Amino acid sequence: MYIVNTSFMVDPAMHQQWLDLIRKHYIPLIIERGYARPVFSRLITDSIPEHFTYSIQVEVPDIPAYNTLTQEIFSEYTEIAGPLFGDRVLWFTSLLKKEDY
To answer: N or C end of the chain, less CB within 10 A?
Structure first.
């Protein structure tokens, strides 16, 4: 089992518009495509941040499911979010492998 973690740094001026896109379109799209309900979280710090930092984590059973998620759903996100936010929302994706302990 794997976890696909996508982290976002969001400019405060774009925050609410970006948050609406994620909540109303992107997370429902992930669920609609058959992935487990994502974990959506915001980083909390002791200092006043210059931007908001969020993470969406999605469990995938195998590499083909990871490829589908990143190639289809993330591509759609890029097509929508790129023109809306440009470099005011930065993001990257990491693949984590769950290990037994």
So the answer is: C
* pLDDT per residue as tens digits for the range 72-90: 888 888 888 999 999 999 9
Cβ count near 1 (within 10 Å): 11
3-state secondary structure string, 60-96? ECCHHHHHHHHHHHHHHHHHHHHHHHHHHEEEEEEEE
Q: In whole angstroms, what is the distance from residue 1 CA to residue 41 CA?
A: 20
Helix or strand (DSSP H, E) at 58 = strand 52-60
Rounded Cα gap, residues 41 and 39, in angstroms? 6
